[in-house]
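Revision sheet: structure tokens.
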Amino acid sequence: MKRRTSIAAGIFALAGGIALLTSCASLNGSGSGTDAGTGDAEMMEQAEVVGTWVSDEKGKPTLTFDESGKVSGTDGCNGIGSTYTIDGDRVLIESFVSTMMGCPGVDDWLRKVREVQPNGDELRIFNSSGEEIGTLQREA
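Predicted:
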């Protein structure tokens, strides 16, 4: 009886290991829904987003992306900072840490950013619901 239990446990462990390897392989290169064969063609280059992006709105909302994965700036009133990751063709931003000053008359829309899409010299800004909430321009 003991021998059957150890053989069954070994087979179960082997099957679990194969399932784990298979699931890891299927996730590799497909973070944005593309298959592994086309993933490289659709990968966003970090250089497309690195730099400073601004608006001429009151308070001059600004985001600066660096090569280390940090993003900082101002929502037009308060300083904001976070990290970003590139996942396939998407640039995802974690929730911001922010100062909390009151600024009457300043729209702090930029604080709601969760994803950006660079397109040449324009940066489209999306909130957590996937709605476009504004744009910034690459600083010259």
